[in-house]
Write a structure and sequence with these properties.
LysR family transcriptional regulator YnfL, Arc Repressor Mutant, subunit A, D-Maltodextrin-Binding Protein, domain 2, 5-stranded mixed β-sheet, 3 domains, DNA-binding transcription factor activity, LysR_subst-bd, 294 residues, HTH-type_LysR_regulators, alpha/beta
Length: 294
C-alpha cells in the first residue's frame, strides 16, 4: 500500500464517481480503477458499491476513509514540519559557548535570534572549550563558539575564525606599578588568581608561569571571570587572561599589560561537526554570530 492509493481512494469517496475523480487526479479512469482494485485486494475487502453511474462507500470503505484521512493529514503535517525545519523557521538549536562569549555577546545574540526566528527552541549552554568539542562530536550540540591555539583541535570538527585575541597581564590601576616586576620574575606583593584545574586557560597560564619563572605568592582559584576581575580590581591580586575577559569590566579600574614574552594568540571561532548535515537554523545562527562578533 502506498500513499497514492489512499489519495486516489479519498478522491473517489469524496466525489462518489470514478470519472470525476480521475479528472481531478489527472489520470485515466482505467488507471484509477486499477489503483482502487489494488487497494481492495491488499485489504481483502470491497470499498465501494456501484449506485447508478456513481459509487457509494461500503461499510469497510467508511472505516478505511476515516483512517486514510488521518494518515494523509499526518503526512501533510510531516511535510510542513520538515519544510519548516529545512527553511530554519522551526525546530531546536543547541549551542555551546565559552564563558567570556556568554557574558559579552549572548544577550545580544539571543535577543536578535529570537526576534528573527521566534519558533526555534534555542538552548545556549556555557561550557569549557573541551566540553564544547565533546558535545559537538557526540551530537549533543549543533554548533559551538570556542577557541583554538596553533590550530590544535579535534579532527572531527571544522573551525571558522571570528577573531584573534592576545593574552594580557591583568592588574588593578592601583597595582599597575608591579606589572614589570611580575613579568621580570621579581618579588612582588600580589597574589595570583586563576581558574581551577580543568579549565584550558589554567593549563596555558601555568605553563607560561613555569616557563618564565613568574612568582605567584600562592594562588586563589575562582571559576567565574567576573569574580576573578572583582578580586583583581578590589584586592591585591593579579591574573593572566585573554584580552577579551577584561572587557567584561567597564568601570576603568582594570589595567591590561602586554606579556613579554607573548603567549600565542587565542583564535575565537565557530566549531562545526565535519560529518553532520548542517541545519538551516545553524546557518542562520552563524550568520548572526558573524555579523555581531566578527
Amino acid at each position: 500500500m502506498e500513499l497514492r492509493h489512499l489519495r486516489y481512494f479519498c478522491a473517489v469517496a469524496e466525489l462518489e464517481h470514478f470519472h470525476k475523480a480521475a479528472e481531478r487526479l489527472c489520470i485515466t479512469q482505467p488507471a484509477l480503477s486499477n489503483q482502487i482494485k489494488q487497494l481492495e485486494n491488499e485489504l481483502s475487502t470491497k470499498l465501494f458499491h456501484r449506485v447508478g453511474r456513481g459509487v457509494r462507500l461500503s461499510e469497510s470503505g467508511e472505516i478505511v476513509l476515516s483512517t486514510a484521512k488521518k494518515i494523509l493529514n499526518e503526512v501533510t503535517h510531516l511535510q510542513q514540519t520538515v519544510n519548516e525545519l529545512e527553511s530554519g523557521s522551526r525546530g531546536s538549536l543547541n549551542v555551546g559557548v565559552l564563558q567570556s562569549i556568554n557574558t559579552l555577546y549572548c544577550r545580544q545574540l539571543v535577543t536578535a535570534f529570537d526576534k528573527l526566528h521566534p519558533n526555534i527552541n534555542l538552548n545556549l549552554l556555557e561550557l569549557a572549550n573541551k566540553d564544547i568539542e565533546a558535545g559537538l562530536i557526540q551530537g549533543n550540540l549543533d554548533v559551538g563558539i570556542g577557541f583554538i591555539l596553533n590550530k590544535n583541535y579535534n579532527p572531527g570538527l571544522n573551525f571558522e575564525l571570528l577573531f584573534k585575541e592576545d593574552w594580557k597581564l591583568i592588574t588593578s590601576q592601583k597595582n599597575a606599578e608591579f606589572s614589570s616586576g611580575i613579568l621580570n620574575s621579581s618579588s612582588h606583593p600580589l597574589k595570583m588568581v586563576l581558574f581551577p584545574h580543568g579549565f584550558e586557560t589554567r593549563a596555558i597560564v601555568e605553563n607560561y608561569i613555569s616557563s618564565n619563572q613568574i612568582k605567584t605568592n600562592n594562588i586563589t582559584e575562582l571559576n567565574k571571570i567576573s569574580l576573578i576581575l572583582d578580586l583583581v580590581e578590589n584586592g591585591n591580586s593579579f591574573s593572566i587572561l585573554p584580552e577579551l575577559f577584561a572587557k567584561i569590566h567597564t568601570n576603568g579600574q582594570i589595567r591590561m599589560h602586554d606579556l613579554v614574552p607573548k603567549l600565542p594568540q587565542r583564535n575565537i571561532g565557530l566549531f562545526f561537526p565535519t560529518q553532520r548535515y548542517t541545519k538551516r537554523s545553524v546557518s542562520n545562527f552563524c550568520s548572526l554570530v558573524r555579523e555581531i562578533m566578527s
